[in-house]
Amino acid sequence: MDIETYTLIVSALLFTIGTAGVLLRRNAIIMLMCIELMLNSVNLTLVVFSRSLGIEAQVFVFFVMAVATAEAAVGLAIIIAIFRHYELVDVDRFNLLKW
Prior knowledge:
3 helices; Helix Hairpins
């Protein structure tokens, strides 16, 4: 196997860990970290595919990084606001965002 195959295996493993973290953990900060892990694994996959697809895949990496930055900023702002109001970050315990 070549280096691209190993890198894709690592990327799939990182994405699986991130998905498991989002589904199994109830702490909002850890869930955001797992989402970031999933986005970074997608970036790693796009960089590997850029060797065969060309520079377009690397352009998508910048878009994913911009989305990850916005998600982190908005998500952390919401979590801080909820923590200041309820003094907890357990997503099972607060229902502020439900209708």
